[in-house]
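ok so heres the complex, two chains, lmk if somethin looks off
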Amino acid sequence: MTADLALIWPELILTIGGLITLMLGTFMGDRQVGIYQLSALLTLAAAAAAVVALFGIETTVFSGTLSVDSFGGFAKLLIYAASFVCIVIAPRFFNGAMRAEYPTLILFAALGMGIMASSRDLMTLYVGLELNSLAAYVLASFMRTDERSSEAGLKYFVLGALASGMLLYGISLLYGFSGTTDFAGIAKVLGGELNIGLIFGIVFVLAGLGFKISAVPFHMWTPDVYEGAPTPVTTFFATAPKVAAMALMTRVVIDAMGPAVGAWQQIVIFLSLASIILGAVGAIGQKNIKRLLAYSSINNVGFMLIGLAGGTQQGVEAVLTYLLVYMVTTLGAFLVVLQLRDAEGNQIESIPALAGLSQRRPGLAAAMAVFMYSLAGIPPLFGFWPKLLVFWAAVEANLVPLAVAGIVASVIGAYYYIAIIKIMYFDDKSDTEIPKGGGTIVEDAVITASALWLSVIGYLFIPVLAVLSASAAAVLF
Amino acid sequence: MSGFPILSLMLAVPAVASILCLFTGDKTARWVALGATLVTFVLGCVLWANFDIGGAQWQFQELHEGIFGRFDYALGIDGMALMLIMLSVFLMPLCILASWESIKSRVGLYMSMFLVMEVVMIGVFMAQDLLLFYIFFEAGLIPMYFIIGIWGGANRKYAAFKFFLYTLLGSVLMLIAMIAMIAEAGTTDIPTLLNYDFPVQMQTWLWLAFFASLAVKMPMWPVHTWLPDAHVQAPTAGSMILAGVLLKLGAYGFLRFMMPMFPDASGQLMWIVFALSMVAVVYTSLVALVQNDMKKLIAYSSVAHMAIVTAGLFAFNQQGIEGALIIMLSHGVVSAALFFCVGVIYDRLHTREIDRYGGLAVNMPAYALFFMLFTMASIGLPGTSGFVGEFLSLAGIYEASSVVAFVCTTGIILGAAYMLYLYRRVVFGELTKDDVKAMPDLNAREWTIMVPLAAVALWMGVYPESFLAPMRGDVTTVVARLAPAKPAGDAHLAAGKPKPAAAHGEAAHGSSHAGGVQ
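and the predicted structre for the whole thing:
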């Protein structure tokens, strides 16, 4: 037991750091933004360092309920990085209304997500998921006086609770028919004959997880929550929990359901194609940039699921690479959205107001163009690479029709991404002034760095990414 | 020259300049762009001078394995690629000059996009790695989308969208086919894939996927509809580069990938290409005949010319393919020149409507002269570049199928009709309109652009051997690769006895063939 504790340093650090941050906020007051923010950031950095220190160890702890491996490590690093950025960008957005609960909740959410990514038992899975979700519900309604924010939180909570119910129902079925909550044990049972109870269990578990990754048809909450939640929180939702939920889904599908390919593969294929197509079509009519990015995240989840559908190691590598590139792109895009403020300092979210942005703020527009082209997967931008990898994995797994359908549907998605570019570059200037300045150096640096990385420079990192994702994916096989 | 990465340098010069242009003022951006394209052109000339005709098939190879993980940074050229690179680097400075005065807003971005375009185009021809090729091939969409969308005509946004989505939809299928090829053959190296025998069943699917992409780029009837829109709306230099080089990417893909990599499927499905080409030649020529918009007319004529190219390529013989290549080069120069001719008068009167002009021969004699030369070259008058290509390719097509040759020849007659009709309406007739009367003749800058274009069109017409020689060996290789899949033609040509006087010419042919095959 004590030996196990030494292997979960990242989780311990996050727990203790979260509590310290909470105490700092409580006793020093919400005005001392710098102090509790620093404490949260240091916690995340320390947790990330602990993950790096534990890299290479492949074992399980607490009687096999939690795994310590490079797959979880990879996901945790992404999660911590996204959380870090989301804490950095918050104070300016909340503009005086910043409270210590924000970094604290993010830390606890990150803790939950870390557990999700390393769980290998249905119970730890659920604990991690709920720890993350409960923090997320509160974060969504963080601006208490804002109607949209409260609505987003409530909606998220109700629908999230429904999804948790479905997941729990599936878990109970799986447990009831297999007699164990351990992933490996379930896999052993699923390797034998499938009965209707097990199949129902698989379907309900996947439905519950589909909600968390916002795959169609469980995506309805996404646009509303993304639009209503404060932008830093939306940035958080679009990045870290996506990574965690996708990692969890991968683990469940490969580790627990691996042998029953026939049972889950068709579900994943349906989720993926439905997400790609609906994510693309739904985005076309959007007038709000945050809603649009919500549909874009649905769309991208669909592509990740294509990689997962084959159930091969190559597919999982592709998913992990996709997660990393998607996270960088999305962070960049939301940071650009955060910079869009009119002369009075009000946040601009309407897409028509972006007209002619390239003439007002050429740098910002160029960065946004890079992110959009990258999300659309147009080479030579780096967003092309993960898309190529997932299709490659699908072709290698003999899922050519899926690859063809997915790639053709990606053209529909390209339409609205290039429509944003059209608005920024081709249209005449809108009436909305978008004055320069106000953004912190960190924000500018993150935008610049991610835009540069997503332009051709990213290709130089492919060998590194390949080694990392391969070592992470190998754990599951 | 061996060992010096001249190909990378040719990519790097415009790439660096494109970044520079973004951060400089309008005036500097123009000069930076001109300087960079000229330097690249000089490098291209050095490349041509050092190209060993009849030597190794692939020259100037550069290979950096592993820097991109799953694929390599592999460059290298053969004769076909060399000539198309020359075409690109030759047209580029002229395009920059053509937009010297007509582009007034956001000059830095414009020049930057053109330089990116240049990198992408010559990259396509240099790439020796399948994925690297695809990246360059697709990357061209981004700068072209900006060029049409920002500096285009009234309906530019629609045209930009149509161009982007149309070509993207085609290309993505090719990507899946490429992945399948890599999975099957286990390599991304193009020279290796060129000699890999894919299973016949698989070839058919791969062929169709490539065809979906390349037919759109080409463009072939009935997926050509993006081209007139894109051409009409694009700024003059955009049309020049679109017609001059981008349209050649499709034919290059046919010749580089589809024919040698899937020879059996090419043999089985050649009827599709022939059928579509025949329809295209006649149909688009007729459509060109009734256009009121000069750019649209030339755009449709491009589709017709490209149809002769595809038919020539699928004749599967030396003349047909060599002819198709010469048409590609010739059309690259001539159509760019014609679009520039339109641009010259558009800059003065700001309309492309043919009826608004007339009698230009009176007040713009120099312009009329150049315009006539390019019109004749487009028709294929002997002595101009068009003749060589059309004659060779039709001779090749005739060997494969007399019906196709007959229909394609009809297209050439129609081509003469619409081009001469255009010329008559714009240049001849009464000079009645006052605003037309006020139009000045060519200025020094326009002369600078016209003269090189005219010189090359004549050079290619009078001594095409300079252009054919580097490509001959590569064509022989492709023909040899296709030979087992080649269906019997209906012409049943019987070779006569060569006269002794012609013997040295035959010998020269024979030796260069042997050089190419090894």
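quick notes: Strands of chain B lie at 59-68, 71-77. thats all i got rn
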